[in-house]
Amino acid sequence: MLVQTSVSSLPFLGSDVAATYDNAKVVILPIPYEATTTYRRGCEHGPDAILNASQQVEYYDEELDRELWEVGLYTHEAIADTRNAQKVSSEAMLRVTQGTVYKLVSDGKFVISLGGEHSITTGVVEAYRQANPGEAFTVVQVDAHGDLRHEYEGSIHNHACVMRRVVDMGLPTLQVGIRSICKEEADLIKEKQLPVFRAREIVAQPDWIDRALASIKTEKVFITIDLDGIDPTLIPGVGTPEPGGLNWYNLLTFIQRIFAAHDVIGCDVMELAPITDSVVSEFTAAKLVYKLIGYHAIAQSW
Ligand SMILES: [Mn+2]
């Protein structure tokens, strides 16, 4: 009889190069939670797909001229897992996410959370508020969508509302790659004068990165990447694809410059919904996670 083994135990990049928790500077936190997806489902399988694809990522980063696994990578067990029809309320997901990220940050770890749906980011950001009492940090969001609705389909914790929750926390934001918003969101952007760099401006204006960076007024930054912010030709495996997103090198340059100029306190990579018979989306996501680790390691002189 075949015994179905869980693949979620695969550590990022591979067990040969995994560090112990104590020796790790970076913790990868899988959060396979999906409850409010509005179009194509499957993001609860995103974290495992990224971990599996990461086994194929080259250890040596040709841009950074280093094998970044040496900084110490530890992959945490999955939390808020809704796979196999497990029910997890949004409140329970936010509670366990905040508690887990806060514990990891308190232990001095640099945490990269993997979703799962974007509503998870509310819990992640709450953990950094808890870890940085009274100190503002900017939440930089790469996304096709504004996610600024107060409520969607009856829930304030729908994935279409995550940045509204961040704005409600009083944290400054920077939104990049946006190309799909509703009237309510457009009005809020104007009313609060939120810095937004739309995808069509990014294509037309080569100096957008300079201007985007100039809009960040805090030393500390949290980066949340909804993978649908990237062009869907690069990452088709998302729940709500939108044409015309960031290209690979544009994205990497933008992110690398944030790491170089600011203290990035944490990151998340959200909304991967794998497609059968194509590994492009999860491999691109895995490579992006390794780039986040690399840019942070260089910025921290690790
Ligand atoms: Mn989105």
Automatic annotation (TrEMBL):
<protein>
    <submittedName>
        <fullName>Agmatinase</fullName>
        <ecNumber>3.5.3.11</ecNumber>
    </submittedName>
</protein>
<dbReference type="GO" id="GO:0008783">
    <property type="term" value="F:agmatinase activity"/>
</dbReference>
<dbReference type="InterPro" id="IPR005925">
    <property type="entry name" value="Agmatinase-rel"/>
</dbReference>
<dbReference type="InterPro" id="IPR023696">
    <property type="entry name" value="Ureohydrolase_dom_sf"/>
</dbReference>
<keyword id="KW-0378">Hydrolase</keyword>
<dbReference type="InterPro" id="IPR020855">
    <property type="entry name" value="Ureohydrolase_Mn_BS"/>
</dbReference>
<keyword id="KW-0479">Metal-binding</keyword>
<comment type="similarity">
    <text>Belongs to the arginase family. Agmatinase subfamily.</text>
</comment>
<dbReference type="Pfam" id="PF00491">
    <property type="entry name" value="Arginase"/>
</dbReference>
<dbReference type="InterPro" id="IPR006035">
    <property type="entry name" value="Ureohydrolase"/>
</dbReference>
